[in-house]
Amino acid sequence: MSEPVGRYSAVETIGRGVRAAPALRTGFGVTLAFALMGASGRVVIPILVQQAIDRGFPAKGVQVHVVAWLALVAFCIITLATWAQRTAVYRLGRRSEEALFGLRVRLFEHIHRLSIADHSEERKGALVARVTSDVETLAQFFQWGGLAIMLDGTLMLLVAAVMLAYDWVLAVVAFVVAAPLFFVLQRVQRHLVRAYDEARAQNAEVMTQISEVVSGAETLRSYGVGGRYARRVKRASHDRSNAFIRAGTIGAFLFPSGEVFGVLTVSAVVVTGLLRGPGSGLTAGAMVGFVFLTYRFLEPIAEFTEVLDQAQTAVAGMRRVLGVLEIPIGPPEPEVPMKLPQGGLAVTLDRVDFSYRTRGDGDEPLVLNNVTAHIPAGQQVAVVGETGSGKTTLGRLVARMADPAAGTVLVGGVPLTRVSNNDLRARLTVVPQEPFLFEGSIAANLLFAKPKLSIADLERSIDDLDLRDWLDTLPDGIDTEVGQRGAQLSAGERQLVALIRASLVDPDVLVLDEATSSVDALTEVRLSHALERLASGRTTIAIAHRLSTAARADRVLVLDHGSLVEDGSHAELVQAGGVYSRMFEAWVASTSAG
Ligand SMILES: Nc1ncnc2c1ncn2[C@@H]1O[C@H](COP(=O)(O)OP(=O)(O)OP(=O)(O)O)[C@@H](O)[C@H]1O
Ligand SMILES: [Mg+2]
């Protein structure tokens, strides 16, 4: 199984990431141009200072009009640059939000479509949790880091170019002296991040302990162990302060180290300039301008190194996100779909093998083993077997939630691999073993399948299934709230809602997985009655846990450890004295005893 791992280099990851989130690329050139314009505003000041000194204060006296002009030019350029920078920030922020939105949607859709054959629900849940935190990392990076990299990066490049253009010797001196700063800062920042992570963890620990001591105060007091717990909280608080002090100490190192390198670099520049003397063609203005430029060059380094670290985390996050997007999805849509025939639909299983590959060791047992059965259109079939014999799995294959490992499933004579998903969903409905209800009213849970229906339509289907008396027992009838996951209803009632929901689709094939959990007698009568009504005239595969359902079916299929071991009518199978007759005897004994 493809576990998303770091298969791509950083550059490749960024390239693929941009392809996965194309909004990032939209208008990027224009944004970059705005960022450059914004950065140029900051380079212009040192140049104008140089001009003001060299041309505004020549030996023959102060040239007020030159300085005034330069000031006006500076004002215009700064205004323009500020506007450009603001535009760049806005554009980048907007694009990254769009990109993240698209990425989130794609990720959740993708995870949703992963085959149940390869990914259990828990694993999908874990993937969602992980991807959520990865996208959060990316979001944080985009909100600040991406912007900083772009703005700081363009600024540093531009300043470096201007420095080289002014005087390449001084520029090289500045770069060489400043270079160690880059590495020192990177190291310090890494320690700092780790120290703050540690401090935050300690903080959470203190909070947990305090809340435990407070909410468990009564228990602690009754056992007289309050003192011990108080000492524990004290120790955790002490660790917490130490962690924060440590982080603070590292942080305190950060600021002066930038200053030290700044002073060193500028000193080196000034000394080199003076040593070379006026003979080298370096004017006083150029010298001052250069010092300004050097500061400008150093300014963003601290932020830049910090952001580079963040970028690494973001790339790792993106790598995992891509890994998830590249997991192959479940049953693919056919390229050239075949329409299901009109009218009733037969269901055929032809030498079907299946195994769940969720363990990932390639050695999973066959959950269905060479199952062959033909169910003519309109037949009512019950599937029975012990728990774990593969009944639910068989239903899943008929509904094409997964494809068999070998063999073919056909509906209406068409292999399911050739049927489009929409066509199949309109003609075949599954009532799962544990139907999922969303928080909201019963009506909302019914309309979920067919949003265009009216309440009157719903009422009519409820009457058709003879469930009016049940609905009347509920506090608000069809508007009764079902609670989270339908928790306000009993398991049997949830299945009733699912039956009504299925009837709204009016399918030609109905797959019903009976609830395993015990259902009270009245609800059971309602369920079997509603099922009978719903099933009539449709091909029905009822996975029966209550053998009364099997007894009423036209035909019974018996699964045993994934193999179809018996196939016949209830009466025939009871007569035959095999697996089914023993199951039936046991069931009759248990129901008459209970
Ligand atoms: N999503 C899954 N991932 C991995 N293994 C699964 C999954 N679903 C079922 N299985 C395994 O496949 C086998 C058949 O399960 P299935 O749910 O089809 O049995 P069942 O006959 O419906 O059982 P029950 O009567 O308890 O509903 C079992 O061994 C089960 O552990
Ligand atoms: Mg089952």
SSE arrangement:
Layout: H1 10-20, H2 28-56, H3 64-112, H4 121-166, H5 168-215, H6 217-223, H7 226-276, H8 284-298, H9 301-325, E1 347-354, E2 368-375, E3 380-385, H10 391-398, E4 406-411, E5 414-415, H11 421-427, E6 428-431, H12 442-447, H13 455-464, H14 468-473, H15 491-505, E7 509-513, H16 521-535, E8 539-543, H17 547-552, E9 555-560, E10 563-568, H18 570-576, H19 579-593
Parallel strand pairs: 3-8, 3-9, 6-7, 7-8
Antiparallel strand pairs: 1-2, 1-4, 4-5, 9-10
Helix pairs in contact: 1-9, 2-3, 2-4, 2-8, 3-4, 4-5, 4-8, 4-9, 5-7, 5-9, 7-8, 15-16, 18-19
This protein binds adenosine-5'-triphosphate (ATP) and magnesium ion.
- For the largest sheet, list the strands in their spatial order: 6-7-8-3-9-10
Strand content: 5-15%
Largest sheet features: 6 strands, mixed
Q: Which topology of the largest domain does CATH recognise?
A: Rossmann fold
For the record, what CATH class of the largest domain applies?
Alpha Beta
Work out the radius of gyration: 36 Å
**In the CATH hierarchy, what is the superfamily of the largest domain?**
P-loop containing nucleotide triphosphate hydrolases
CATH architecture descriptor of the largest domain: 3-Layer(aba) Sandwich
Count the domains.
3
Q: Which secondary-structure class do the elements indicate?
A: alpha/beta
The small molecules bound here are:
adenosine-5'-triphosphate, magnesium ion
What attributes does this structure have?
alpha/beta; elongated; 4-stranded antiparallel beta sheet; disordered N terminus; binds magnesium ion; binds adenosine-5'-triphosphate; 3 domains; Rossmann fold; 6-stranded mixed beta sheet
